[in-house]
Specification:
The protein is an alpha/beta fold. It is 33% helix and 23% strand. The chain folds into two domains: 173 residues, Flavin prenyltransferase-like (Rossmann fold); 218 residues, CoaB-like (Rossmann fold, 3-Layer(aba) Sandwich), CATH 3.40.50.10300. Strands 12-11-8-13-16-17-18-19 form an eight-stranded mixed sheet, sandwiched between helices. The chain binds ligand PMT. The site of ligand PMT has 27 residues, from helix 10, helix 12 and strand 16.
Length: 425
Amino acid sequence: MDGIGSPQGGSGSVAVVDRPKRVVLGVSGGIASYKAVEVCRRLVDSGVHVVPVLTRNATRFVGEITFSALASEPAITSLWNGREPIPHTRLGQAADLVVVVPATAGFLAHYANGFADDILEATLVATRAPVVVCPAMHTEMWEHPAVRDNIATLRRRGVHVIEPVEGRLAGSDSGAGRLADPADIVAVVMGLLERVTEPGDLAGVKVLVSAGGTREAIDPVRVITNRSSGKQGFAIAEVAVARGAAVTVVSTVEPRALRGIEVLRVETAAEMERAMYSLAPACDVVVMAAAVADFRPKLVADSKLSKADGVPEIVLEQTPDILAGLARRRRPGQVLVGFAAEAGGDVAVKAAAKMAAKGVDVMVANDVLAPGAGFDHDTNEVVIVGSGGEQATVGLSSKQEVAAAVLDMVVERLRAVGRAGQENS
Ligand code: PMT
């Protein structure tokens, strides 16, 4: 497709937001609330337009006047300020990013469950902007299963979590749960805001993604499959849509409700192969995040195999290599991305070898045995290698953050072949 570029659809450059970035600084009520003041000051000093939004409990720790004096606008502490009927929607819609410093256990529980009971919660439910939460609490609370579950839920939804660090806590205690350093929080926020300067860097780009593990029939009731959940593939789709792409996912799993993504359900490697080969020619970017079975039963029994007939001998045959086939068929300028599921060793070297063997542009290596990485986790840890020798490492992060880094390399590739706008042009 031609005409990749501005969100309006014209070819050429990416539209650039030429105004101060607008950040809602949410403050919930914990002893670390006072450190949000430093975050506020540093963001303002970095040229960010900061709107402080404080919960009632936050005001027990730090006065709203402190934030009003340092921020770009007076602090907001209530849904019912008497001046405007729906401040949360204005705040949520206008925000380029929302960061919550500190995020207490109570706040996380409310946010994970979609409560909209106060000005901060309502603003978060009303925004489509990226959200960063910075938890801070006592170690026992941070390690409580309910808090862990809430963090996992938020990560799954694409919320960025800046984990607390070890150190002094309230009182004489110390341990895990101390708010991350305000300078580190500001660095993460500024990094995310940089991406906001390029809204729609995939505007007009058609992206095809495969997700999930294929299921190969043994008989009408049994299959050979793997532990792929489809989370990484759908995270790619979700982030690509947010950056303006038109996205189709060929998936073996039931998709989460995601706005703007077309999903085609398949089950086997053969079905995935057919779907990918028929859709790929119309796409600019193809990402194989699916875990395709390498082997399938050569013969599928037409009735359920019975114990009475003894242990069956299942002869396997190799499945087609879909990614290699896509590379052979690819049209000029199309960017082809594979994922390499490795089990230890130098994953970047192994992925580079797979990239060369299959003839693709970008290979994303994950060590599927590393804690928190690979199959079924909400997080992943990858090395992204490009066929031109580029390399990017993403430490343990949400699958959405991994997706963003993969798509950054894809955008560079598209720009190199003149199929996406130039930065800041
Ligand atoms: O789905 P999740 O639970 O979120 O887990 C994510 C993931 C671990 C599945 C994902 O990050 C991942 O690594 N996907 C690729 C898994 C895989 O099949 O890796 P591989 O090294 O065996 O294959 C390399 C590439 O060839 C992959 O892009 C794969 O899709 C492709 N392939 C493999 C075999 C085959 N017959 N056809 C293929 O196209």
